[in-house]
Amino acid sequence: MSPAKPSSMTVAPAGLGRVCRVVPDLLEKCFEISYLVKGRTVKTHVVDPSGTKSALGTNDGLLKRLRIPSQPAKGYYPVQLRFDTSSSSKVSAAVEILASQGGIEARGAIFTRAEVVDFILDLVGYTEDRPLFLKRLLEPSCGGGDFLLPAVDRLLAAWQASGNKGSIVDALGGAIRAVELHRRTFAVTRQAVIERVEHEGIALQSATALADMWLMQGDFLLEPPEEQFDFVVGNPPYVRQELIPAPLLAEYRRRYPTMYDRADLYIPFIERSLLMLAVGGNLGFICADRWMKNRYGGPLRSLVAEKFHLKIYVDMVDTPAFDREVIAYPAITIISREKPGATRIAHRPSIDRITLRDLAEELKATSVPSGSTTARELPRITNGTEPWLLESPDQMALIRRLEQQYPTLEEAACKVGIGVATGADKAFIGNFEALDVEPDRKLPLVTTRDILSGEVKWRGQGVINPFTDDGPLVDLRKYPRLRGYLEARKEIIAGRHCAQKAPWNWYRTIDRITPSIAKKQKLLIPDIKGESHVVFEAGELYPHHNLYYVTSEAWDLRALQAVLLSGVTRLFVATYSTKMHGGFLRFQAQYLRRIRVPYWHDVAEGLRKELKEAAKSRDLQACNRAAFKLYGLSREERAALGGNGE
Question: Is-above-0.90 flag for pTM?
Answer without folding.
Answer: no
